[in-house]
Amino acid sequence: MTLLALQDFAVTRRGRDILRNVSLSVGTGELVGIIGPNGAGKTTLMRAALGLIDSAGHSSLAALSARERGREVAWMPQQREIAWPVDVQTLVTLGRTPHLSPGQRPKPEDQAAVDRALDRMDLLSFRDRTATRLSGGEQARVLIARALAQETPLLMADEPIAGLDPAHQIATMKIFGALASEGKSVMVSLHDLGLAARHCTRLIVLDQGGLVADGAPQEVLTAARVRETFAINAFVQDTPDGLIFQPLDVVT
Amino acid sequence: MSRLALGLSALVAALFVTALAVGPAPLGIWHGLQALIAGGDGPEVLVMREIRLPRALLGLMIGGALGLAGAAMQGYLRNPLADPGLIGVSGSAALGAVLALQTGLAATVALGLPLAALGGALLGVGLVLALAGPRGSSLTLILAGIAISALAAALTSLVLNLSPNPFAANEIVFWMMGSLADRSMTHVAIAAPLILLGGVMLGSLGRGLDALTLGEDAAEAMGVNLTRLRLVLIFGTAAVVGAATAVAGAIGFVGLVVPHLLRPLVGARPGRLLWASAFGGAAMLLAADIAVRVILPARDLKLGVVTALVGAPLFLHLIYRTRQEGL
Amino acid sequence: MLALRAGITAIGLLAGTALPGLTEDVPRRVVSMNLCTDQLAMLLADEGQLISISDLALDPRSSAMVDEAAAYPVNNGLAEEIYLMQPDLVLAGRYSALATVDMLRRLSIRVEQLDPATSLDQVTERMARMGKLLAREDVAADQIARFDQRLASFRDGISPRPRAALYFANGYTSGDQTLAGDILSAAGMINIAAELGLVSGGVIPLETLAMAAPDTVVTGQPYPGASRSEEILSHPVVGALQAGRPSTSMNAQDWLCGTPYVLRAIDQMAGLRREVQAARERQQARN
After folding, report:
1. Is the pLDDT assigned to residue B13 strictly greater than 50?
2. Of C117, C151, C185, which marks where a domain is finished?
């Protein structure tokens, strides 16, 4: 089953090609990492695929109505915005918005989804805390929980682990991995290639608005590819513990 | 019904009855209420039904409208400084109303007065939102508000000064500060339809404003139609503020103070804050209107004076706090 | 128009010089810069003696002598323009442009200020004063006699006296110690402002007006263009007090200044009193 299909996908803004000629599809059970240098078009790819900005070509998600889309895909923007000092429970419950009809109050099953999300993100004890008073990392976890509470087949997250401590970065990637193993799919953009190498089932490399590689981490993260796209030399080795990727130096 | 809803309704009801009991005519409260309900043709009935009842009804409606509009604007802009009075919406509405009165439109077209005020308010909201951007930063919001308020006030003064009516020029202060003195059921009838319509529109925004807590992108991805939300917000705000200003002048700070005070009581949820602010706004304006009648019974002390005395210090406090938070 | 005015002035000057008994003290070039002095001067001045009046004298809402005023050049009460007219006497109100009055006096122009009349007695006083200023005492005495005679005719045996409210923009009213109050009582009515303790005037809140339940309400006439101040005159409460009862709106130009035109105002009010009386009798007959 395909959760996202992009065909000849392109985004042009103010006459400039931000993204061009991208075709890909995401099935079930995948943890897809989107990597690429700054300005490669990672955020644009995800926002345009969701239909939040205008694009050319076909996106299966952008073609849905706003409400249907809200049940198919959860989106966690890079901007970690929590505008009002609401409590964590309330914030995470917002993830249930697409499942409620107008004027409807959250049902017990919605509360159950919220509880599962809080539990997954290890936030049960934070339930009554005011979200805006939490640390940056805690806020990030709350926002991930919000996206999880949406309980959609696909989760798209823009740099969800930036700013988390190593333990929570790993834990979060493991949660995404667990979702994938449950048959859902997760699409995350990230800059930490080491985590991407270890946890993602598939990596998509963007460079200057084009898709330059798409495949298993072992195939994508070659020394040559990394040198060309990221301008770094790296240590890469496939071990029994998984793929080890360690950036070493900038290519001069 | 939650404890808050119960408390607020009780407060509004108590203030409404008090508003009916306050006035220069020496009527006992029971005597007055009896005249109001039972009717008859004595002067008491005239006082209760044609003077105090419309005044109290307008306080209720207009206060509710301003509280609601403030909560909605703040929820949309995600900025606690947004108040229809402060960001120039009321001022623009006053300009529309004054134009309608002086051109005779108000007298010739049914609902011409509130519709013209709505037009003015629409211009004001549109300008503010265009200038402040999707997430209004405090600075641009306040600057845009100052500019729009100043322009609207200048044009209002100009129109009133150009009026052939010698009294008109002296009424600049009414249009800037607002008053419910000597209003009648006619004014209730003028304001009610648009306030109800706009109120229903704004009241429907709860879910969208809640979702906006997470930002525009996240809200839109959760199925909130932002274009529609923006349009409903603009028209709803313009309708309630326009109709309120058309009959009572520009009353500031209600939409600032009330959401601020009630926000902690609704868990800061923008959706719940909407109805709570409508009740709270009604309570605040009724209280302010009782205050102007008790403090200076013989003169028409403007409502805006009282609301500004309460609101301006709070506004300063909020500016100070947003600066600290670096918003 | 200018030529015509010049002609009138020339004839006036000729006529003026031809009159016997004119001394050096008689002002020959009089400028009035106040609505009320305008009208008194027009009534009493010799031909050609009055060379300019204020622009307000041409406003039909304020001036009872618009037709007469058309024959005079107007001024806007500016010191410069008045000085250039080379007046030997300037007539001003007590409260009119004090800076202008001071300036003219510094330029050694004789300025006489008249207080506004606040009673019918003061009307004749003002007429006498104006007559003296213009050296037209005989004309003034003549007009005063006629005024007193007509005034007396109104005051003969009136009873009962209905209660009336004067109601203007912003809920203002005039008390007994005002010209308007005097006009009302000369016409045989009781001013409710007095019952409410307002001596010279003030605001009657709508509620108080409703509770006072006057027999008739006399409102000010609204100006063109809208104002919130005048909206009170069409408030349902005023409407209810006027409904089914004789009532009227006043012609302000007859009420504003202490001139013989106040007789017209008294006459109008006396007419209203008779209507109120007639309505009351009809009511009693029905019961």
Report:
1. yes
2. C151
Are A50 and B269 inside 8 Å of each other by CB?
no
Chain A closest CA to B122's CA: distance in Å? 26
Helix (H) or strand (E) segment spanning residue A39: none
Give the number of domains in chain A: 1
Q: How large is the C-alpha radius of gyration of chain C? A: 21
How far apart are alpha carbons A160 and A162 in whole angstroms? 6
What domains can you pick out in chain B, each with its CATH number? 54-325 (1.10.3470.10)
* Residue C123 shares a structural domain with residue C184: no
Among A144-153, A227-236, C8-17, C216-225, name the one with the lowest average pLDDT. C8-17
Q: Is the domain of C194 the same as that of C104? A: no
- B212 φ, ψ to 5°? -65, -15
**Which of C151, C181, C204 is at the close of a domain?**
C151
The pLDDT tens digits for A73-101 are 999 999 999 999 999 999 999 999 999 98
* pTM for this model (two decimals): 0.88
Residues C144 and C171 in one domain: no
Q: What is the Rg, in whole angstroms, of the alpha carbon atoms belonging to chain B?
A: 19
Bridge partners of residue A74, in order along the sequence: A155
Q: What CATH number should be reported for the domain holding residue C85?
A: 3.40.50.1980
- What percentage of residues in chain A have a pLDDT greater than 90? 86
Residue B118 reports pLDDT greater than 90: yes
Domain residues for A125?
A: 2-250
Structural domains counted in chain C: 2
CA distance C265 to C263: 5
Chain B residues in contact with C222 by the CB 8 A cut-off are: 165
Report pLDDT digits (tens) over C236-266: 999 999 887 888 888 888 999 999 999 999 9
pLDDT of B136? 65
Q: Determine A/B contact with 3+ CB pairs under 8 A as the test.
A: yes
Range of the domain at C168: 159-286
- Contact present, C53 and C34 (Cβ < 8 Å): no
Quote the tokens at residue C242. Answer: 């006027």
Q: Give the angle subtended at the CA of A158 by the CAs of A157 and A162, to the nearest 5°.
A: 110
Strand C111-114, strand A56-59: pairing: unpaired
Q: What is the pLDDT of residue C120?
A: 93
Q: With touching defined as 3+ CB pairs under 8 A, do chains C and B touch?
A: yes
Ranges assigned E (strand) in chain A: 2-13, 16-27, 31-35, 56-59, 73-76, 154-158, 185-189, 202-207, 210-215, 232-239, 242-250
Claim to verify: residue C145 and residue C172 sit in the same structural domain: no
Q: Spell out which residues of chain C touch residue B57, defining contact as CB-CB under 8 Å.
A: none
pLDDT score for B326: 52
Residue C68 φ/ψ, nearest 5 degrees: -65, -40
Q: Verify that C144 and C181 share a domain, yes or no.
A: no
